[in-house]
TrEMBL record:
Alphabetically ordered keywords of this record: Hydrolase
UniProt record similarity statement: Belongs to the AB hydrolase superfamily. Epoxide hydrolase family.
AB hydrolase-1 domain mapped to chain residues: 29-323
InterPro entries given in the database record: AB_hydrolase_1, AB_hydrolase_fold, Epox_hydrolase-like
Protein name as catalogued: Bifunctional epoxide hydrolase 2
Pfam families referenced in this protein's UniProt entry, alphabetically: Abhydrolase_1
Signal peptide region: none
Top-level taxon in the UniProt lineage: Eukaryota
GO molecular function: hydrolase activity
C-alpha cells in the first residue's frame, strides 16, 4: 500500500471472522476508520498513512460482508445492532477502552450508532457525508428531507433515495447487475465529484423509473481507464478482486434493515443526544448525501451538542478525492478539540521549563 508498515490481522466475533489493517505505534492514541458501501479497509489508505505517521495507532476493518471478513447469507445479519457489536468486539480484541472513531457512508452510520448506544467507547467521532439521525431511522426519515425544488414529488417520489427503495423490492436483481461487470461497476461508483452536478437531480433518483441501475441495462457501462476514479490502480485491483470473490449480497444487505435499524435507534441513550466531540465533513458535490441545500443535516445539528462542521469541495468519496484537505480537517479538529488525544501530549502547566 505504501512505505508505511501496515500489518494485517483477523479476529472472530461469534461466527464472524473480521479482518483489519493496523499501522502506527502500538502505544499511540487509537483511531479506528470504518468504511462504507462498497468499500474495504484499504480505501482509507491516505488516512492510514498520514495519521500513523503522526503517531496515532490506526486500525481499519473490512466490515462484515466485505473484503477478507465473513459474508453471512442472511440480510438481517447486517443490521446496525450487529455492526455495532462487531466494532465493540474489535475494540475489545485490541484491549482498548475507547478510540476516536472515523466513518464514511455506511461506516458513518455505524459510528453514529456506536456513539448513541456506547458513548463511553468514543473519545470523539468524525463522520463524512451521512449526517446523524437520518438513515438510522429508516428510509421514511430520509424522504422527509428531500429537497422538492430539485426533486418534485410527481417526478421523483423518493428523491435521491430512489435506489434504496429499489433495493427493498429488487435487491437480487441489483446484485446481479453489479456483479455482471465488477470492474466497471466500481469505476462508476467511485467517480470523482462533478461541480456541474451541484443542485441537479442525482442519478440515484431515477433507478425504479429506469428499470434498475445503469438505465436498466444488464451491467455497468464501459468506463475506460481510472482517470475519472478516485481509486489508484492498487486499491482498484484489490477492491475488484474482493468483490468478484464475495459479491454484492453483503454490501446490499446493509440497506435491507430499515425497520430493525429504526427500532434500535429508538433505544439510543439520552434520547439520542450526543455530548461527544464530533466532526462532520460535508462533501459539497455529493449528489446523494447533499447537506448544503437540503435539510438532511438539520437533525444532526439538533442532536449533537459538541459539533464542528467542515465542507470540502469533493464528491462522495471525499477522503480519497481530497485526502490532504480531509486529513488537515481531521488533524486540526483533533488538535483543537481533543488536545489530550494528540500523540506526545503533555500538560504545559506541569511540564516545567527546559
Amino acid at each position: 500500500m505504501s512505505s508505511m508498515h501496515i500489518e494485517e490481522h483477523e479476529f472472530s466475533n461469534d461466527d464472524v471472522k473480521l479482518f483489519y489493517l493496523s499501522a502506527g505505534p502500538k502505544n499511540g492514541p487509537l483511531m479506528i476508520f470504518v468504511h462504507g458501501w462498497p468499500g474495504i479497509a484499504e480505501t482509507w489508505k491516505p488516512q492510514i498513512s498520514a495519521f500513523a505517521a503522526l503517531g496515532f495507532r490506526i486500525v481499519a476493518p473490512d466490515m462484515r460482508g466485505y473484503g477478507r471478513s465473513t459474508v453471512t447469507r442472511e440480510s438481517h445479519d447486517y443490521r446496525l445492532e450487529r455492526l455495532v457489536a462487531d466494532m465493540l468486539a474489535l475494540l475489545a480484541s485490541l484491549q482498548k477502552k475507547e478510540a476516536v472513531w472515523v466513518g464514511h457512508d455506511w461506516g458513518a452510520l455505524v459510528v453514529w450508532s456506536l456513539a448513541a448506544h456506547f458513548p463511553e467507547v468514543c473519545t470523539g467521532i468524525v463522520n463524512m457525508c451521512v449526517p446523524y439521525h437520518t438513515l438510522e431511522y429508516g428510509l421514511d426519515a430520509l424522504l422527509a428531507t428531500v429537497d422538492r425544488e430539485i426533486y418534485p414529488a410527481d417526478k421523483f417520489p423518493n428523491g435521491q433515495w430512489d435506489y434504496q427503495a429499489y433495493y427493498e423490492t429488487d435487491s437480487a436483481e441489483a446484485n446481479k447487475v453489479f456483479e455482471a461487470d465488477i470492474a466497471n461497476t466500481i469505476k462508476v461508483l467511485y467517480r470523482r465529484g462533478d461541480p456541474a452536478s451541484y443542485g441537479k437531480p442525482a442519478l440515484t433518483s431515477a433507478i425504479i423509473h429506469s428499470g434498475g441501475w445503469f438505465g436498466g441495462k444488464s451491467s455497468a457501462p464501459e468506463m475506460g481507464d481510472l482517470s475519472r476514479s478516485v481509486l489508484d490502480e492498487s486499491t482498484f485491483n484489490t477492491l475488484s478482486d474482493h468483490l468478484k470473490r464475495m459479491g454484492f449480497f453483503g454490501p446490499t444487505s446493509y440497506y435491507l434493515n430499515h425497520a430493525a435499524n429504526k427500532e434500535y435507534s429508538e433505544r439510543s441513550l439520552n434520547g439520542g443526544v450526543l455530548d461527544i466531540p464530533t466532526l462532520f465533513i460535508e462533501a459539497k458535490f455529493d449528489g446523494v448525501c447533499e447537506t448544503s441545500m437540503s435539510t438532511l443535516s438539520d437533525s444532526m445539528r439538533r442532536y449533537c451538542r459538541d459539533l464542528t462542521q467542515v465542507s470540502i469541495e469533493a464528491g462522495h468519496w471525499v477522503a480519497l478525492e481530497r485526502p490532504q484537505e480531509t486529513n488537515a480537517a481531521i488533524a486540526r479538529w483533533l488538535m483543537t478539540t481533543l488536545p489530550t488525544s494528540w500523540p506526545g501530549y503533555y500538560d504545559e502547566i506541569n511540564a516545567g521549563m527546559y
